[in-house]
Amino acid sequence: MTVQQVGGAAPASRPDEPDGPVGAEPSRPSPRRRRHRWLDAAIAIVLLVLVAVGALRWLDSTAYVVVVLQTAGPFVLIGLGLLLVATLVGRRWVMAAPVVIALAVAVTVAAPAFRASSSPKVEPDLTVMSANVWIGSANVNQLMDAVRFHSVDVLVLVEATPALMQRLDAEGAGDYFTHREGAARPSTSSGTMVLSRYPLSVRSAGTDPAVEATQSVQPELDVTTPKGTVRLKVAHPTAPLRGDTVEWRAGLQALRSWKERLDGDEPVVMAGDFNASFGHPAMRDVAAGLADAQRTDGQGWVRTWPFAGNRLPAFVQLDHLLSRGLTVVSAGQVAVNRADHAAVWAGYALPKR
Question: What is the distance between the alpha carbons of residues 139 and 142, in angstroms, rounded to a whole number?
């Protein structure tokens, strides 16, 4: 006898029977969800790369790739900003949080360079300019125009050659600057000359590579101004080219050791092409306790290299004016034709006696 179901209800399925049609495929993520997953993955990869490059600023290494990437700090900051915009436009709120955190850290690191603490209302007692003249090839007419415009008292010439000095004198440098010390060397980047409107006294010729850890001349001088004496040290460590990074860091360490040997509270200026940026731990060690003129003036992303002879636009500050016991009044940069570095200058006020 067959029992009919009341109301024609369908029979209950057995526990071992699958729901839905036999042979049906499991549900797949929608195309939109798949796109979101790919976008999240792309954001995560870019974020990890930017964070890894940014974190290299705390790695003291002589590996060539690391030394090069340590100059990319500004690009990391820009990249994180663009990544945050992309994340917000794509409405990927989950990924926005780590991007914001990384960007906040990058902004915190960069912020001091944009915070001015110079004293522009004070009258400068001494103006110093440092110029890498690219093995004597710089345009001396433009250089002397900059010297006169900024009323430079001391001009540091890195990579000076005898031919450059002759061209400078033809442009009036011999009349403008009445004192000079150093060594101009032909056909090499190791020469250095210091020209001054004030008397110079040599503490060290800076020509011993065993002491300076570089082949370049790095003289140490006393500049006697009407307001007092300033101790000047020229810096030009070996460039961190492939195969030379160990010597490069040794040169920076020698400059740090020189700084740490200073006694007393006499005013000091370190000037030159340091071949290093604040993205390098060794450079920050040299600058610790000293004021970088451009950073003190709140100029932010300062770029002094590369200029002439390079396809890349200038993106990194390798040239610095570091000081102790002086008030930074103003500072700036000047690009000169046929020089691969921009010159840096700063006006200083000496302490009252």
Answer: 6
Segment 299-349, tens digit of pLDDT: 999 999 999 877 789 999 999 999 999 999 999 999 999 999 999 999 999
pTM, rounded to two decimals: 0.89
How many angstroms separate the CA atoms of 26 and 94, rounded? 27
Is residue 329 within 8 Å of 122, Cβ to Cβ? yes
Alpha-carbon span 230 to 227, nearest angstrom: 9
DSSP β-bridge partners for residue 224: 229
Integer Rg of the chain from CA: 30
Among candidate residues 180, 114, 132, 120, the one with its CA nearest the CA of residue 153: 180
Positive or negative, the CA dihedral 21, 25, 30, 31 is negative
Indicate the CATH number for domain 117-349.
Answer: 3.60.10.10
| Two tokens, residue 165 | 């000095």
Contact 344, 335 (CB under 8 A): no
| Domain map (residue ranges) of the chain | 31-113, 117-349
Kindly state the tokens that stand for 146.
Answer: 């900059």
Annotate 125-139 with DSSP letters as a single string.
SEEEEEEE-TTTTS-
Query: Count of CB atoms within 10 A of residue 171's CB?
Result: 17
